[in-house]
Amino acid sequence: MEKNKVAIALATLLASSMAWSQGYVIDPPSRAALCQQGENHCGYGERYHADEVITIAGSHDFAAPGKIASAGNDEFDGLNTEGSHWQKTVIGEVPLDISWQLTRPTQVSSWKYYLTEPNWQNAIGTGQRLSAENFIQTPFCTFAGDGKFHQGMITHQCTLPETQGYQLIYAVAELAQVDGHPSEKITNIIDVDVIKGEQHSDAAIHTHWQKEIGTLDHLIRGKPLKINAGDTIRVRFFDHISEVPSREISVSVLPGEEASWSETVANAINQKYQDVRAGVFQPDGDVQPEKGEINSVYVPQENPLQGVEITIN
């Protein structure tokens, strides 16, 4: 019975995850992206659903005070408390490339980037949470969408205003309204340390593995999916039309692999395919399987695959 419940939950997850626009800033990595990669210590929601920090679009780009980093979503409330615990990316004052990873085919109508006020840390509100007043109200960088659906990496070159020290970049991707659904925005906070003369490596954006098509790890009823020895994990691949059965991989979990099953599955994918890579995205653009982390699946930009899911037998 429990296996059937998990199968139903995964089927529901598949149907929803293949339908909705999702994404996050991958470089410089957003707060949520670093949660997924295990560099920030976060709750389950932030770790497993880093690409779902999404809010209903309104007249204002910022969510309510105290809920900006989470896009007003209680599932990601752990992102809202400011402090020294967030990992920062060192950048210089030269033009800055900001790259998104769109994990589903997504149509974006506009992109905007805001920067915190110079004294934002002294002006932060009650409970060490952000408000719109902590940001310069005019975005320092904007781009219009091209009316097309995109999946994979999208990069914008921006000129950062003169600033220094610990600052936050607030990235907003306003999604086009599709099929009568309310317009939405993906919003990400990026923690940066601006140091004159430094230059942020852009190795990540030149990776061969440009397109993330899904993750192996999932939450079921709010908890990480539990796998037992003897379970068989089917990895199922999808293109823009339907499932691609010829791509399917089956992996049987051996005793001792229960806690590292996604690493085991990632290694199996990497051993079978040259054009698919599973693991954790690295700062140098490589993808390596890791135990205890969220192992995702990537392909080159031109690869027709668009999604991956798992079924437990």
UniProtKB/TrEMBL annotation:
Keyword annotations for this protein, in alphabetical order, are: Chitin-binding, Plasmid, Secreted, Signal
Kindly give the InterPro entries that the UniProt entry links to this protein.
Answer: Cellulose/chitin-bd_N (IPR004302), GbpA_2 (IPR041029), GlcNAc_Chitin_IntDeg (IPR051024), Ig_E-set (IPR014756)
Give the top-rank taxon of the lineage listed in the UniProt record for this protein: Bacteria
Task: Describe the location of the Chitin-binding type-4 domain by residue ranges.
Answer: 23-192
Keyword Signal carried by entry: yes
Provide the leader sequence positions.
Answer: 1-21
Q: Name one Pfam family in it.
A: LPMO_10
Q: Matching Gene3D superfamilies, A to Z? A: 3.30.70.2150, chitin-binding protein cbp21 (2.70.50.50)
Q: Where is the N-acetylglucosamine binding protein A domain?
A: 226-310
Q: Cite the PANTHER family for this sequence.
A: CHITIN-BINDING TYPE-4 DOMAIN-CONTAINING PROTEIN (PTHR34823:SF1), GLCNAC-BINDING PROTEIN A (PTHR34823)
Q: What name does the UniProt record give this protein?
A: Chitin-binding protein
The protein's organism comes out as: Pantoea cypripedii
